[in-house]
Amino acid sequence: MTDAPLLKVNDVSKFYGNRIGCRNVSFGLWPGEVLAIVGESGSGKTTLLNCISTRLMPTTGSVECHMRDGAYRDLYRMNEAERRFLMRTDWGFVHQNPADGLRMTVSAGANVGERLMAIGDRHYGNIRSTAVDWLQRVEIDAGRIDDQPRAFSGGMRQRLQIARNLVTGPRLVFMDEPTGGLDVSVQARLLDLVRGLVNDLGLAAIIVTHDLAVARLLSHRMMVMKDGQVIEHGLTDRVLDDPREPYTQLLVSSILQV
């Protein structure tokens, strides 16, 4: 990891009238670092993720990204076209429901290839060859390249969504409950795949999850949220093995009792 944060989140808050989505959240994320944001449903973790990833405008605060030219840019001072280009190139977003992140009526190869075309690749042979390579990297048979995602299982759809996001070599990937809704055996296989890809590619990632086992397996650092606020923040093993806040202690003990 370098000395310069890839992302700087400064006092981000989101309010819905009198209701708090998230409040006064600040942190830095470094290149190659994986941060888990954990908490129960309604804790504000997905709201925070959406604010950080420009999917939702925060009420107050700023999010600054360290660009490839070395300068920091405030994401909410960029125009819409600049933000879209960032999302298609340097960033990825893996949804809990793969159908939200895939085009279900085009082929698997086209889903991967669209990201390449968005950055200017127009050579059909290169696009198809790269798509084949990425399908194999996410453990999808290359013979399925012309099949549509609706013909795939849930686990295969999620792996295809990951390939679609990583094909352009992004520096940062957001993941919203990436294993939610999958069978336990499928979850384990997907987690091993994600961990391997993150390590091999040196990706930074922000992962929202309610599953502390997922956080332990994938993340270096963890933030625990409750009622829209970060109540505990530290190295993942430290937070899970020696939680300091009563709420975190309850979360950890509830997992141990299952």
What does this structure look like?
The structure is a single chain. The two termini are 36 Å apart. Helix 3 crosses helix 4 and helix 4 crosses helix 5. Helices cover 38% and strands 25% of the residues. The chain has two domains: 7-90 and 170-257, P-loop containing nucleotide triphosphate hydrolases (Rossmann fold, 3-Layer(aba) Sandwich); 104-169, no CATH class. A six-stranded mixed sheet has the order 6-7-8-3-9-10, with helices on both faces. Strands 2-1-4-5 form a four-stranded antiparallel sheet. Strand 4 (60-66) and strand 5 (72-74) form a beta hairpin. The radius of gyration is 18 Å and the shape is globular. The protein contains nine helices and ten strands. It has helices at residues 45-52, 80-89, 108-118, 124-137, 154-166, 184-201, 212-218, 236-241, 246-257, and strands at 7-16, 19-29, 34-38, 60-66, 72-74, 91-94, 172-176, 204-209, 221-226, 229-235. With 258 residues, the chain is an alpha/beta fold. The model has no long low-confidence stretch (mean pLDDT 93). Keywords: ATP-binding, Nucleotide-binding. This is Phosphonate transport system ATP-binding protein. It comes from Rhizobium tibeticum.
